[in-house]
Amino acid sequence: MLQWIAWGLLPLAVPAAPTPTHNNQIVLRAQPSSSSDKQPLRKLHGRFLHITDLHPDPFYKVHSSTEETIACHRGNGPAGTYGAETSDCDSPFSLVNATLDWVSKNVLGDIDFVVWTGDSARHDSDEETPRHNKEILETNQQLADSFSATFSDKHGLTIPVVPTFGNNDIFPHNILMPGPNDVLRSYTDIWRNFIPEAQRHSFEFGGWFYVEVIPNKLAVFSLNTMYFFDRNAGIDDCVKTSEPGYKHFEWLRIQLQFMRDRGMKAILMGHVPPARTASKQLWDETCWQKYTLWLKQYRDVVVGSLYGHMNIDHFLLQDTKDLDLSLIEAAGSRLKEVREPIEDDMSINSGAEYLVDLRNMWSQLPKPVSAKDYAHVKGKTNKKGGKKHKKDKLGGQFAEHFQLSLVSPSIVPNYFPSIRIIEYNITGLEDAVTWVDHMRGSSVKSNLTVNDESQVEYSDEQDQEILELRDLSDGLVDAEGKKKKKKKKRPKKPSFTVPEPPSKSAGPGPAYSPQPLTLTGFTQYYANLTSINNDIAPSVSSDESDDNLGVERWNPGKHHGKKPKHDSPQPREFVFEVEYDTFSDKIYKLKDLTVRSFVELAHTIGQASAKSKAQARDTPDDGEEDESDEQTDDDSEDENESDDEHVTEEDVDDDEESADDDDEEDSEDGPHTTGGKGNKGKKGKKGKKNKKKARKVWLHFAKHAFVSTRTAEQLKGIDK
Ligand SMILES: [Zn+2]
Hints:
By secondary structure, the chain is an alpha/beta fold. The protein has a domain at 4-30 and 44-378 and 400-523. It has helices at 4-9, 93-106, 133-150, 182-190, 200-206, 244-261, 285-297, 326-329, 348-362, 371-380, 435-439, 460-473, 529-533, 595-606, 613-618, 632-640, 649-652, 680-705, 712-717; strands at 47-51, 114-116, 152-153, 156-157, 161-163, 209-214, 218-222, 265-270, 280-281, 302-307, 314-319, 340-341, 402-407, 418-424, 519-526, 577-581. A hairpin with a 2-residue loop joins strand 3 (152-153) and strand 4 (156-157). The longest helix is centred in the C-terminal third of the chain and has 26 residues, at 680-705. The chain is globular. It starts with a helix and ends with a helix. Bound molecules: zinc ion (ZN). Zinc ion is lined by residues 119, 166-168, 271, 309.
């Protein structure tokens, strides 16, 4: 019993011959390899798809009402052919199918794998048609079949798909009991084409698995965030050894160590992100603590972390200065809740509040020292590993005190439907064996064979850990895993194993310093449903209005109260267009997707906050753009710079392109710097200008957060 850990350790994370699906004719069976000199079926492209929160609703009806409790199921109203954009209605299947069609025609040939972060069932928004378990699983099966069909040829998957479930893929929603259980067994079956065969057993136990999307090079880890989710009443925390969250982190630690030992890298993905502001959070604090510690220790392994659930386009930073091991040291005691859980489903209003919370938190970030200046500073502290310069509040030039989570917006059109294509560096990997070629046996030189456990060699250390885990598990979880035994058997070893840090010789990891597998940028695509549905005449007045922003719960959308202009729908062709991309976005100016790039961006956005350090002192709670904060720049500079180090504007602006700004006022310096110490006369002007620039970046961030569905006026209103 409880062989899950041993199972979980099987290193080959590539599925064996996938089994046929229920509902279509495709026989998903791997071809046995015949020769090793076959032409490869695929090459790497350095791109992958992140898709999330499809929320298909079998009851969606075109031209129905978007009002609360009706949820696009009945009545007459503006619900469009491909969805009721900007409302809280779920997705029609037409949107899901059109999306996968578009992906199939436009990106299939260019991507290496698919990250699919869950919520593949509708919400429970209509009391007349309540959700039930069977429907949720059927919807998920239907979507899994569609994904299989989209990413397969006649022999099976050609591109690995890595799914996870969301809080709405479970009935009742948010509640997932410790495994093994029926929910996990169901998904083991639903995702049989996606979960490597060798890991199905451990998946049934915990709902976690990984896929070697580039065999022996890169794995995508599907985390079961339901076991971290504060709203999951079926679990407690990540401290007690009987908790599935505890076991999840043990599994993750062992697997990431295994990746490190094999010289591999990992992308982490899950549904619910580790969102955590001063007052609110989504994960149990103990789980957040462990996650942050794990990512710190495996910063040489982890390439990036991708999440969904929030629907809004944004990112999160974990700051390792918030680590407090005492919170996760002792088993048994429930941590006092310091933060409120974030609301279940974000209304526009709470979304705006949340963005403002993030911005206010970022206003406390230290000012990033320019790379050039860092080199200068480093030169002065000639002792290797000697005392850190006081400027070094980020964790060196790579900002290693921080960790980054990227949250992609959703298909479900609470805003506009959106998908993300992320690019990564494949230098030196151009001829790496792809997943499908590995699966189908062409040019496989691996000495490990799927399902051949005897050939797996564990290090002594791993053996030891497996034994320890078995000790801990035995007697702590009963056979069903359903009911936790009440303190009958207390764990002998309440403390936990702190993961090994990177070796001293390891350089900064792929999330920090550009190198092979580092994420280089992404393109955000969106489908403008207002245009595609072609149903609502453009309004003269602005009654698609700010009152959206005041909605507390259900949002009936911007077409609320309007009538479709055609009796029968006349939609235009469904297409995704580029909303923005990080390679050419002139306001974000992200060189890449490294942590440092986002720390710089977050710092700039934070400077637009009334709570940014300087302004909080000088112009309390002003909130206006930039008219009364003459001293801002001075003070923030004094926080972060010593007197003997003059950072001139030229230094700070050094790596900014000079002429790529469309706004004349912003042509002198980039958004990621707050400027340097000028002479006395320039300071006020500079501060004012920086504030204005920060405000511009903040509004840009908010615009994309809502997938370009909000007017400039509405955006300006969100922090008032
Ligand atoms: Zn969700």
